[in-house]
Amino acid sequence: MARVAVYGAGSWGTATAVVLADAGCRVALWGRRPELVRAINTTRTNPDYLPGSVLPHAVTATADPAEAADGAEVAFLCVSAQQLRGALGTWAPAIRDDTVLVSLMKGVELGTGLLMSQVIAEVTGAGPERIGVVSGPNLAREIAARQPAASVVACRDLTVAARLQEILRTPCFRPYTNADVIGCELGGAVKNVIALAVGMADGMGLGDNTKATLMTRGLAETSRLGAAMGADPRTFAGLAGMGDLIATCASPLSRNHTFGANLGRGMSVAEAAAAMTQTAEGVTSCASVLDLAKRHGVEMPIAEAVVGVIRAGVRPRTAVKELMGRAAGSE
Ligand SMILES: NC(=O)C1=CN([C@@H]2O[C@H](COP(=O)(O)OP(=O)(O)OC[C@H]3O[C@@H](n4cnc5c(N)ncnc54)[C@H](O)[C@@H]3O)[C@@H](O)[C@H]2O)C=CC1
Ligand SMILES: O=C(CO)COP(=O)(O)O
Questions:
Q1: Which domains does the chain have, with CATH numbers?
Q2: 19, 190, 276, 293: which could join 298 in a potential S-S bond, CB 3.0 to 4.6 Å?
Q3: Residue with the nearest Cα to atom 2 of ligand 2?
Q4: Mapping DSSP to helix (H, G, I), strand (E, B) and coil, where does residue 102 land?
């Protein structure tokens, strides 16, 4: 039985712990707050982040990073993207040198423009053969309810990706391997920004033509950035690209979509933020995505419009007018 650790007992860390336990692993789930850890171990649920889902007995929560790391073949990392660097700095001394480090996150670090795999490499010094990513259309509540879904496990070393695939595979969760770590991470991070835009469209009462346009052109700008960063263009047509974009933009369960919809209905950014109890990564990562685009000389008009709304107080209706007023182009 593989022993694994999941660092971060939020909604996705907890849902992934369920998948891993279903796949036959013994799972140590690290949580920051001892009271939540106690609640998870005594009620077999995560009342704060995944209420209603019963956790398998193979999942044990702990607030001690060393206890979580003990004997772990893989450490899955899942806090909000801007918190990874600091949190990993505290976990890393407890984690063995041969443990594979896997990001479950979908964001880009502000200031550095680094993807989560790159932050992991920088903080721990781990090589690419020890760093993986899981990304795909995986809304936590549907995964925890064991609805059939697929995902991508990416690692530059495909032997490691195949091992991760084995560790995560269940009758309800089907991971595909990919060596394109950067493409998978970009697909996940940028779709959150596009989901904010689609949410705004929904909130403004706009229909399916508008949303399809945002999703398709959003994927086009994601692919342009990916090409400039050396990603494999095929990744964006797959689960970590189009798949996740569709799920997130279509689902009322998506926090990014919800945040955008609240803005579209007329809430201010502060009001929309106050209405959230969980992470909507696109709200912070939109600025780092746009920063990456500028560094690579890539045009990302939808991401730019989202940054305008979130950071500069542009009204969503004005952002739509600006997008529609851009110079005509070819597809
Ligand atoms: N929820 C979902 O459906 C999915 C989420 N993701 C990604 O997973 C990442 C985490 O998201 P969720 O689990 O959904 O967020 P969440 O808001 O449910 O949980 C965030 C977790 O991070 C912890 N945390 C925050 N700051 C911390 C710090 N400084 N030190 C230690 N822990 C800290 C919180 O206590 C909480 O456990 C995001 O990048 C998100 O995009 C990816 C796939 C699906
Ligand atoms: O990444 C996700 C689904 O794949 C979850 O999206 P949200 O973070 O918008 O809820």
A1: 3-179 (3.40.50.720), 186-324 (1.10.1040.10)
A2: 293
A3: 139
A4: strand
